[in-house]
Amino acid sequence: MYHHVKKLMYSVRVDTPNVRFGNMLLEQFGGANGELAAAMQYTLQGWNCVDDIARRDLLLDIGTEELSHLEVVGALIRMHLKDLKTNREAAEADPLVTIAGGGGVALFDSMGNAWTANYLKVTGELDVDLRGNIAAEARAKIVYERLIDHTDDPGTIDTLQFLMTREITHMKAFSAALETLQKPPFSIGRLRPTPGIVDEYFNGSTGNGGEGDTDMHGPWQTSFGLHPVESELHGGPGLSVDDIDGTISGEERGKQDAGRPTLDAPEKSELVGAREANS
Asked: What's the rounded Cα separation, in Å, for the pair 173 and 166?
């Protein structure tokens, strides 16, 4: 159940409205990295998370806060776009918002592209979703940084600073939730990767380029058990594709399956039986 409180999470103030900047702000209202996308992504993940009510609560807490951020961003945009309602010259800066939306907010990004559910990343695998959420918060933080860099309005900067800061707060919460699963960092899903080939770093970009770029070496080729492998085109053995021979079950799950489920969640014994029947 949702209940709307008629008070913004952060009080918005705009000293000098700027229609063009208001258009840019739409990126965080109806864009791929915006607040609606975050709110819907975390909320859907939470509703689908029936096997772990603790982390379900986390997802719904943050999903709900993102809805409040959408309201803050919407208020900020409306203040910047208010001249669209009365000023013909200002209206020319954004005909779509002026004519279709009456100078208010709508679910479009800064380029006029309609919001779409394709922005959402919901896999139903808790650790994968948490990793995706950490990345989503990082992308949103960068967008707010760039917006701050394109305005001199003090009230706007303060609002964006608040929103940008909360992205880092959410990254911390999602990171902590991921750590409590106590899974090895490269343990994903239920099927183990094939030994050998999983540790082969394929050197697929070779030679010298026209911008001073050349074939480089770094820890990304040798860390976590990795070792470089050259392409057959350069006299190397290529990837050990002959090692692939069916699937391998038994991926390490940590505590991912040990959470307290909801009352209507499937019994874990039923899930195990279903997986065995399908294997």
From this structure: 11
Look at residue 272 in the predicted model and tell me its pLDDT: 56
Residues 72-103 pLDDT 10s? 999 999 999 988 777 777 666 667 677 666 66
User: How far is 263 from 53, CA to CA, in rounded Å?
Assistant: 10
d(CA 41, CA 33): 11
Measured in whole angstroms, the distance separating CA 186 from the mean position of its chain's CA atoms is 19
Residue 248 parent element (H or E): strand 248-249
Contact 277, 70 (CB under 8 A): no
- Spell out the domain ranges in the chain: 19-180, 191-206+217-278
How does pLDDT run across 11-53, given as a tens digit for each residue? 999 999 999 999 999 999 999 999 999 999 999 999 999 999 9
Distance CA 72, CA 93 (A): 23
CA distance 173 to 162: 17
pTM of the shown model? 0.91
* DSSP conformational letter for 112: S
Q: What sign does the dihedral 102-105-108-114 (CA atoms) show?
A: negative
CA distance 222 to 6: 55
* Distance in angstroms (rounded) separating the CA atoms of residues 82 and 94: 12
Chain centroid to Cα 144, Å, comes to 14
CATH number for 19-180: choose from 1.20.1260.10, 3.10.180.10, 1.10.287.370, 2.40.50.140.
1.20.1260.10
